[in-house]
Amino acid sequence: MTREMARARRTEQPLIVAYVDVDGLKTINDSLGHAAGDTTLLKVANALQAGLRSYDVIIRYGGDEFVCVVTGLSMAEAEDRFERIDTDLAGGAQHRSITVGLAHMQPDDTPEGLVARADAALYGQRHSA
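and the corresponding structure tokens:
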């Protein structure tokens, strides 16, 4: 992520970090088994890859979380893109969903700080839902 942030600063392109949580993964693991949970993670990863551009970065960040680094989009464009990904997942056979927190890179951001702000935005989304 450090390289993408340096590139965005150098080219003066906007950079957004999305903290993505797979909704209900623990329930899937507990009720259907870990293989079903792994399949769900793979479906979400594939949906992120299909919904983002080839040069956007998708990182599996935790048990049920991903961090995506998206450059060159406004916050509104990024919100639209992730809403479409969530809609596509919900419309699939298994009706999965994600919750996303977005943070726009500020001049003094570090990678850790930017991810922390995206994570805080995710929790804001959870509490407003």
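(Above: one complete record from the training split.) The helical segments are 2-11, 25-32, 34-51, 75-90, 111-128.
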